[in-house]
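Hey, I was hoping to borrow your eyes for a little while. I'm sending you its amino acid sequence along with the backbone structure tokens. Take your time with it, there's no hurry, and the full record follows here.
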Amino acid sequence: MIILIVGSGAREHAIARALSLDPAVTQLHAAPGNPGIGTLSTVGGSPATLHGVDATDGVAVAALAGAVKADLVVVGPEAPLVAGVADAVRGTGIPVFGPSGKAAMLEGSKAFAKDVMAAAGVPTAEPRVCRSEAELEDALDAFGAPHVVKDDGLAAGKGVVVTDDRAEAIAHGVAIIDAGGVVVVEDFLDGPEVSLFCLCDGETVVPLQPAQDFKRAYDADAGPNTGGMGAYTPLPWAPDGLVDEVVRTVAQPTVDEMARRGTPFVGVLYCGLALTSKGVRVVEFNARFGDPETQVVLARLATPLAGVLLAAAEGRLGGIDALEWRDDAAVTVVVAADGYPASPRKGDPITGIDAAEEVDTVHVLHAGTTLDHRGDLLSNGGRVLSVTALGATLTEARERAYQGVDRIVLPGSHHRTDIAAKAAAEADA
């Protein structure tokens, strides 16, 4: 099987790595990919090939898919999905794992997602859509603190502010409105958050294992929101039956509603959930694998990935066998550039990845990296690397991941030191 992966982040590197370990995969291509993906080889020994194609250019991606004779195209990030790249590829007859542009609006517009949830009876926070400062202030007063203010559109995981400070909430909302955007204000959801990925073929839903990520930049959930500073799975504290409940009350009703609207959802429905005192509530939907949760979830998946993604793309998920999972726990820690998330510094040398991967089970996934003219690895983004490890317990997985982090040298970089710490301690108690 020849597979083309669209995107360039650690999520795409994690997907590519999982596919490279699948004996059914004979060739891997990435557009544009990253230096880490470029080091991969399939089980048969074929090296991955990177192509300098804009991931959001549907015409170019579709042409590349045809040129490499792809059997499957996997679209990773949200921007290409919302831009309709999957539609362009489907138009050529090549199977695509990733929703259409219209279906991807579940992530592209929070107001649209709320409308779908309301129609499907999916439990979520009550929203108010605001297009002016007056509407924003009315919504904040109606809900009270803590205030939850979201950019309706794509914001790379950083478009939301949760604060007790009304002035901060207003400033965030006004900045979005002044830039021509729309604001969604929501009722605050208490309780821990969980990420659950559900593979969908337009009708059938197949859940993966739940994970938890860490959005704030610094330890103890301090600092600004980021795209995610680390993640872990499994969740020893999660209630029994959680996955089945989410499929029954959230994912399947949403997929059914999207089909009813004539926009079937094919790909990953990322269910961002809060386990509140009143039950499970949806915080947000994404239309793709989450980053950094993908790094840990796919590390534990024992079932070969390619056949499952192809079955989803071809509407055959109902016929696949139950997914198999490794008993190990997985932890990933993001190494971020100096200045991230406000103004990440680029161009710093990165060393120590080989040494990090000498630690048992550790693998390092690239996100914000590039090669200079000499072939040396440099930072080229905010979240630069994801250091991922497996272990018999969360404690062991954490220890290995942080051993790997300690061997990587990136001037000025920072990372959280408490990823999965609380869950590991509770599991050991």
